[in-house]
Amino acid sequence: MEDQPQEKEVTIRLTKSSLWQIISGVLAVILVISIFTGGFGFGSSSNTPTGGTGGTVVNPGNGAPTGVVEVSADDDPILGEANAPVTIIEFSDYQCPFCRKFWTDTLPQIKTNYIDTGKVKFVYRDFPLDSLHPLAQKSGEAAECARDVGGEAKYWEMHDKMFSEQNILDSGSPQGPVTSTVQYSIADLKKWASEIGVDSSKFDSCLDDGKFASEVKSDFQDGAEAGVQGTPAFFINGKLISGAQPYSAFQAAIEAELA
Fold this sequence. Notes:
8 helices, 259 residues, 7 strands, two-stranded antiparallel ribbon, alpha+beta
């Protein structure tokens, strides 16, 4: 009868430092995966503590709102029919990459299916994260100046122009246009306004004088008081959706309001 092979017990001894290195490595991998799949957005500034999902994160300090929140559209321009049954108010930052992702991927579908059909009116309000995005405040003022000089249609043209130019500027980024923040100058804002047909002299004077600085800051304050904790943030008939969520999330929320 042949001898059966004997099993040997193997004891692996790990020092505490080695075990901690392994745990730290695993956590680092999980964190990297989360960031690049849109699982978390991070930010820090006097206005922008951290936390949240799917966007550039802020936290004015009151906690995310639940239920229906009374959010004013202020006197900001409306895209769509004024008497539409559903109102979407976006609090956004022109240099926030996740806001740009919403503009690129989701807003066109909402516009085609709901805004153009009279079911939704859409309002853009500024929520500039100054320490993260140094031109966010001035970008918000630029859209307001375009409106002041050229009318409401020029506001939306400037809104689209700024997001569009960022995509062009960011096209060579190794991380792509979703995750990186594009830097541009006030001179670029003036050039873009001229390119959409806004009177350059009047626009430049408006932007240089800070005519709408308080308007943009007021938008931020209203968003903070409503409980906005990240950009982009959306109130659909007062119900919050945070982050650059897929179109299906907005579709479900809008249909629930139309039911």
